[in-house]
Input
Amino acid sequence: MQIETPLFSYPKYWAECYGIAPFLPMSREEMDQLGWDSCDIIIVCGDAYVDHPSFGMAVIGRLLESQGFRVGIIAQPDWTSKDAFQKLGKPNLFFAVSAGNMDSMINRYTSDLKIRHDDAYTPNNEGGKRPDRAVTVYSQRCREAYKGVPIVIGGIEASLRRIAQYDYWSNKVKRSVLLDSKADILLYGNAERAISEIALRISRGEHPKDMTNIRGTACLVKQLPENWEQKDSSRIDKPGKIEAHTNPYIDTSAASENNSCDSKKSTKNEDAEVDVIRFLPIKGNKEEYILLPSFEKVTKDPVLYAHTSRVLHLETNPANALTIVQPHDNRYVWVNPPPIPLSTNELDGVFEQNYQRVPHPAYGDAKIPAYDMIRFSVNIMRGCFGGCSFCSITEHEGRVIQSRSEDSIIREIEKIRDTTPGFTGTISDLGGPTANMYELNCKSEEIHKSCRRLSCVYPSICKNLITDHSPTTQLYRRARALPGIKRIFVASGLRYDLAVEDPEYVKELITHHVGGYLKIAPEHTEGGPLSKMMKPGMETYHRFKALFEKFSLEAGKKQFLIPYFISAHPGTRDEDMMNLALWLKENSYRADQVQNFYPSPMASATAMYYSERDPLHRVGYKTDKVSIPRGAKQRRLHKAFLRYHDPDNWPLLRETLKSMGKSHLIGYGKKHLVPPTQPVRPTRNIKKAGAPSKIRKGNIQTQHTGLPPRKR
Output
């Protein structure tokens, strides 16, 4: 893998003489107290400023501060004018703009497109404190405030909109956010390397528009380089010889046995007849890029959109990804390969900056729910190789697991214990995007360099993947043995198909780190939707459930497994949801909260939703279409199946079961899904004129509740 400049080896900017700020300043008064006449970099963000390593603005701000820059924060500014963007003055180098830890549209709207009236990243959970499409709006206001100041955009909203993407809220394909925001450069993924490089080069007089060679960035170019080799993938079918490429789902263990990763070895590939380019690893210093279908084409052709999504997701391994290019009008969006993952020492350095671990004092006693949730938690790793098609983690953080050292994690726990207000001895979470992927990576660097799998665990766990959880188990044991630490919970999502490969880890987890309930996400019970989600079948779930019950019993604890499911996911038919509901009832599960599929930008499942094609497999105009639950009524129906026990859903379910020819599921028995009658809401007797004055206490009218009649 390419060697990058070590993250903390960049020469310090001259302003390092000002030292470390208690909090990055949010006002001129704070700047005066620090002795600053100006800021070198100003971060504009849609979240409240919490100086904690779980908040992106704090991570980037403290990193840049460690490199000598004076960094100011403009958090949740009033976007209706430029005034709020001038409160810290003109930055000497650039504005860094982010929507925050969440995409602003997902933060503002539910999956049913209803407005949320709360915002966990805002003081007192107040909604409406950030604009829709915050990256674009903030960038425009920065430009109005100070013309000519470079604008760098990043964070998850920019990351997921780096090329043309389907926009669920407007129901159309939108162009790259680079064009709408008029930013100079876009950073995607975890951006520590890229922002450090950009800050140094801007400080030396270079403009970010000229920085076309930084990993993890995207920019606009007017013409393509003539000395680069172009891999044309702008169409699905192309006359002439088609060179086969490596199947992303092929078992690469053969490479390990032969100690070879020659991607030219012949392998059966179901996709060869469709994909018209050979996705070769980078050869030496040879420069290559892949030409995607243009924005104009994918807007008019959903099948081309699915093809584009497939190409994008195949170019996510930093060890072999190529630059991808997408034409937009008369310009090109140039997307460099993903950033080289941080080493353990570098990641330790990022998490051990001078964080105060509390919100900025300007918020006073206001509660920020997102902070309250994570203030006693510790992030131990980054990335996720699960590749779930509906999830944006891999598009943003990547598939390569980046783990902190055990010593660094222990130091953070001790810091929480010794300095965080309100700590009572319980660490609320020791995890990350997926709790049990700590230090799990490919067995061989050589195999990893040639791997193009979209998931290391689907359709089965790769033989080259390390599944030994002993580093995590050792970490848990060391952490809970610390003086002053009473309990350590694991609240992050758990990949149970990995966990069952190491029963010792499962025993440690269930015996010591479950607070009565453990949430896992099988997502569905039926093969159709599971294959589109890239999730394992229920057999693995039952294996984990057996271990959970066994070790809970041995520990003498009454604990419960809480499975999570998604409704209305692409590939889901009404029959699939009915079968899931029957499984839930058979297993006595009643879901209080359910999640309808939310088409987030750039996810593979979103490409399915828009195109009705499956980009996880070969894409063509004649390939079978994917079943898509569309429209408010069908999405409401699928959600109703998950909440089969709610009487409000019974009329819709009865109507649907009858239309499906499943009337035998309507009744009062254990194998029936819903009762044939609707309950009458209990009402109190109201005294009428001339009626006896005495009313028996608690005399509530009770009629049929939809349950079987009681035997008398």
User: Anything to note?
Assistant: The domain at 14-222 is CATH 3.40.50 (Rossmann fold). Confidence is low (pLDDT under 50) at residues 239-285, 686-712. Residues 538-554 form the longest helix (17 residues). DSSP finds 24 helices and 23 strands in the chain.
